[in-house]
């Protein structure tokens, strides 16, 4: 899955005479300390004499093994970081989708509320018009009832004894 960093590294020299690995190391200076922590404690390194030109092949092989271990651990950490980054991205995507869905639900609720408010205003206006019409009919009916009463009382006079009953 991951290509060996040694195989990935360009070995050609840049225009200023430094190798691409040295240039990359200068850029990744902060991550160098992380790699050194992966290799082992400095106490372990101090107890061993670093290989020199006259060191045996076994010393150089040990150094190369440690470098490979550090590189392997670095790749593992990189893979874990990548996986975590993917999980975080997935969580962010889901959070964005949830926010968009919530915003859509809010817009739909606002639209329903506005529709209900408009319907309520229409119903209230209609009810108010009916009340006004009913009041007018009641007023007219009372006028007619008063006329009928007046007409009956004027036209029909009932006399009981000496008193007349209206």
Key traits:
mainly alpha, 166 residues
Distance between the termini: 115 Å
Going across the biggest sheet, name each strand in turn: 1-2
Sketch the topology as an H/E string, one letter per element: HHHHHEE
Spans of at least 5 consecutive residues whose pLDDT stays below 50 are 4-15, 17-21, 23-30
The structural class is: mainly alpha
Shape: rod-shaped
Helix tally equals: 5
The residue-averaged pLDDT reads: 79
User: Strand tally, please?
Assistant: 2
Tell me about the largest β-sheet: 2 strands, antiparallel
Range of strand content: under 5%
Question: What Rg do the Cα atoms give?
Answer: 49 Å
Coiled coil: 67-137
Keywords: Coiled coil
Protein model, in words:
Keywords: Coiled coil. There is one protein chain. The protein folds into two domains: 47 residues, no CATH class; 110 residues. It is mainly alpha-helical. It contains five helices and two strands.
Provide a compact summary of the structure:
The protein has 166 residues and is mainly α. It is 77% helix and 4% strand.
List the helices and strands and how they pair.
Blueprint lengths: L4 H4 L11 H8 L1 H11 L2 H6 L9 H99 L2 E3 L2 E3 L1
Antiparallel strand pairs: 1-2
Helix pairs in contact: 3-5
């Amino acid at each position: 899955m991951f290509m060996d960093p040694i195989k990935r590294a360009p070995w050609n020299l840049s225009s200023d005479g430094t190798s691409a690995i040295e240039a990359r190391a200068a850029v990744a200076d902060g991550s160098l300390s992380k790699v050194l922590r992966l290799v082992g404690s400095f106490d372990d390194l101090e107890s061993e004499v670093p290989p020199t030109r006259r060191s045996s092949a076994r010393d150089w092989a040990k150094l190369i093994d440690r470098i490979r271990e550090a590189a392997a651990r670095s790749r593992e950490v990189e893979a874990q970081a990548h996986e975590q980054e993917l999980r975080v991205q997935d969580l962010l995507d889901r959070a964005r989708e949830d926010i968009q869905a919530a915003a859509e639900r809010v817009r739909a609720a606002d639209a329903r509320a506005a529709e209900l408010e408009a319907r309520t205003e229409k119903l209230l206006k209609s009810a108010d018009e009916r009340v006004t019409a009913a009041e007018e009919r009641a007023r007219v009916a009372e006028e007619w009832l008063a006329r009928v009463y007046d007409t009956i009382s004027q036209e029909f006079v009932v006399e009981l004894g000496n008193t007349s009953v209206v």
